[in-house]
Amino acid sequence: MCKSTTTLFAVLLAVTIAQAADNPPANLTPLTQPWSLMGNGGPQALPGACEVGLDRQHVGGESLHSVRCRNTSLPSFGGARMSFAVGPYLGKRVRVSAAIMTTDVSNVPNPRYPQAMGEAGLWIGVGTPRTGLRADRMQERTIKGSTDWKVHDFVVDIPADANALQAGYWMQGKGQMWIRDLKVEEVPATVPVNLVTTTPRPDSGPDMSLATPAVPRPNDRFLPPPPKWLALGDPGFELCDAGVDAQLMMAGQRNLAIACSFPIRAYIRQAFEAPAYWGKRVRFSGWIKTEQVVPREGVVQPGTNGQPGAALYLAATGSRGPVYHAIVTGSAEWTYRELVIDIPRGDDYIPLGLSLVGTGKVWLRDLKFEEVPRDTPVSPLVVTNP
After folding, report:
1. Which residues on neighbouring strands pair with residue 195, listed in sequence order?
2. Residue 200 forms part of a structural domain
């Protein structure tokens, strides 16, 4: 970037910040078809939600796609995507590109989410009947801080049997991003690819090890959840403890734990890509212990998320349900619980974890996720106390 361009960007950025201080920004205009919001239900789920839409008051007079994240206590996520006709690109090399500008994209300091960085980028999804939707969001080259307009891209080979091509943008943490000129175009085979969608990412599978990089200190009660696990819940859940019981960890036992003194839904989840398990029967199991768990009052339909009490849970079709629960209430010593379900073809991801809907404390250890024989009985939607 030349010196004059850098100076102009600094002036525009200063004007934007000054205007924001004097005039709080208006809400973004909601997106319409063919755009759809990404939501927080996938593997990158975070507890807060960013505003996603069109910024009609951007400096320069343009109406731009934007993500604005204002929560300064919880990490937030927001994004949008749209589908493109894949037929013209079957068996060809394409570039998906857009220009992006950012302001103050940074992380929200919160000890429960030490790995939730403040970052932004493009998103791409390429699907086939064999692999499902393989997605990438520039994990190794995300955008941080304040940046001037710059074109970012994916260059990818589209399989001959592809049935989906999607593209979009996302941001997490706090700050704001703007996007313009999103496009898909065929490029010559001489243009090098920067993304391979025919093989899954190394980190796309489940991790039941519960290994945590944090070392507990004598006075610690809770540590953040292990890598790939996230603490989530209804508004106010952050007042609960959700992560790793430090005292149990010091005794040599890896674990997940949730403790709430007021009735609310809190859970610790992991989600991973489903295609490797398509058409298979799987089991999620672990040992669970409870202390004075009192379910939150209210009737919840079986198969929906948030069953009252403490529970091991597993979903067969991502955020679309149904959600299976193995529930424990009251006070109970370590008890083995398991859920067995079939994973249908076409499922994008598999979420599972530990939930508490009510008050009390629950622990979970010795987790396993594995394929099982077809003659293993499938669990009912709700498995209650043994």
Report:
1. none
2. no
